[in-house]
Structure formats: structure tokens, C-alpha cells
Amino acid sequence: DPYCPYPTSLLHIEELCDSIVRSHRDTSQFRLEELQALRWKLFSREELHAYQSKSVDEMWQHCAVRLTEAVQYVVEFAKRIPGFRGLGQNDQITLLKTGSMEVVLVRMSRCFNTENSTVFFDGKFGSTELFKSLGCGDLMVAVFDFAHSVCALRLTEQQMALFSSLVLINPDRPCLEDRGRVHRMRRDLEVCLSHMLRRDNQESLQHKLYQKVSVLQSLCSLHVEKLHWFSQRYPLIVHSVFPPLYKELFT
Amino acid sequence: KEKHKILHRLLQNSTS
Questions:
Q1: How high is the pLDDT of residue A199?
Q2: A87 vs B contacts (CB less than 8 Å)
Q3: Considering only CA atoms, which of A162, A168, A163, A192 is closest in space to residue A8?
Q4: How many other C-beta atoms are found inside a 10 Å radius of the C-beta of residue A129?
Q5: What is the layout of strands, in order, in the sheet containing A118-121?
Q6: What ipTM does this complex have?
Q7: Is the predicted pLDDT of residue A169 greater than 50, yes or no?
């Protein structure tokens, strides 16, 4: 029934907002207080040198492991979004197949210190220099720039929770079997976000947040492009030592 | 589902 009179009452919307905020908090890899306390804990020159001395395949494997850990938290976030588990299993996979990396990138801004352009990684904060041996300077600069731009919006945790859910519940993903259902979920999340931004007196944020979506998609494409470049040079490494979930999602 | 067995299993696990 395409015009199903879904009860979008205010109470329902507020309950949905609370549930998503709780899901975000319960599945955050790092607590905000922990990140704040560690923000000036930087890698030493020696530690930085150790990262930069890693071979390209060592660093790629290390980063693939860290990225896969972050993705698993996003999968848990998705599972707690009301209605997500009601979707068909193929559609759940389709939404996460691309959306998981996008949410990881959104969440990364929580782990970013704009004052010195460093990101939390392996327990300390490091700059793009830390990732030099990946051989993906342009990707890392683009990712750091994105983190800067999201930090500039000064999102509250609640706003980030809603935005993350909107990034994930995307009815435009290809191969969705029940696009209508995803669309209805998405519509309620959009109502939640605008309700929250109205409450916070920050309605101008909505447009800025939606503008981020296209940047996210280009970052994800660049990541896959770099992975393709790496896989061509080190096919055995990808096949034998990369995390299986990473391979499932990105190769 | 076939091509994403690990993701499928993660989705099946309870949200404890």
C-alpha cells in the first residue's frame, strides 16, 4: 500500500529519535570523553617513523583490520535502528554494503582534532603522515578534509546519531528488493532530524548535512579505487591476510 | 546473502 498512513505522530518521532541516539551511543567504538581526554596524546617521532617504515602491504593490512573493526560497530548500530531488522536480509546487506564505510567516515569526525589535524588511531592521535606508507596520500588528505568539514558543523552526538542513520537508510542504493519500505523508514528519519534541528534551533544544518552525502560517496569510491590498485600489486596479501569481512564488503 | 556470509552472520547475531 504505497500510501500507508504511517502514524508519524510527534510521540512516535520522539521515541524514534531517542532509540537512534541510544543505538549510536551503545555502538560507538570510542566514548567522546575518552577521545577528549586523549586528544593531545600524539605519536612520538620514533613511533611515527615506525609506521612510516612499514611496507605498503603491512600498512594496508593494518588499516584494513582497523577499518573492519570500525565497520563491525556500524553493523551493530544498524541492527538497533528501529525497523532495520524488519527489512529483508538482502536489503539489510545492501544498505550496509556501501553505507557501513560511509558511517565509519562520519563517525571518524568524532575522533578528529581540528586544532592539529590529527585522528585517533591505535590509541593515539596522528596526522596524515602516519599513513604515508599506504601510498594513498590523496585519499588520506580527502578523508582528513572531510573530517574537518564535519567537525566544522559541530554536531551534537544526537545529531550525529540521526545523520548516521540517514546515511545508512538510503532508498537509492541499487538492488534493493523493497525500496518502498526503505523509503518509508527514511522518511521518518528525515522527520526526526528536522524535528531535532528545529528543537536545537539549527535548521540550517539540514541542508549542510545532506551536502555531505555526495562527498561521502566519492570518498568510498576512492577507497575502492585504491584497494583495486593495491590488489593488483599484492593479490595474495588481500586474499590470504585481509579480514574476510573487509573483502566481502570492498572487493 | 550467498556472497556476504560473514555480514549475514553478523546480522543474525542477537543485539546483546
A1: 94
A2: none
A3: A192
A4: 13
A5: A112-113, A118-121, A124-126
A6: 0.93
A7: yes
Q: Averaged over A74-94, what is the pLDDT?
A: 96
Higher pLDDT: A45 or A1? It is A45
Note whether A171 and A186 are within 8 A (CB). Answer: yes
DSSP secondary structure code for residue A114 in this structure: T
Cβ proximity of A109 and A31 under 8 Å:
no
Q: What pLDDT does A2 receive?
A: 47
- With a CB cutoff of 8 Å and minimum separation 6, the contacts of A91 are A176, A177, A178, A181, A182
What is the per-residue pLDDT for A8? 61
Q: How many CB atoms lie within 10 A of CB B13?
A: 10
Contact call for residues A137 and A128 (beta carbons, < 8 A): yes
Q: Per-residue pLDDT tens for A224-251?
A: 999 999 999 999 999 999 999 999 999 9
Average pLDDT of every residue of chain A: 95
Residues paired with residue A118 on neighbouring β-strands, in sequence order: A113
- Is A93 touching B (CB cutoff 8 A)? yes
Q: Which B residues in the span 1-16 are in contact with A, Cβ-Cβ below 8 Å?
A: 1, 3-8, 10-11, 15
The x, y and z cell numbers of residue A161, run together, are 546519531
Of B1, B3, B10, the CB nearest to A75: B10
Q: Is the pLDDT of residue A4 over 70?
A: no
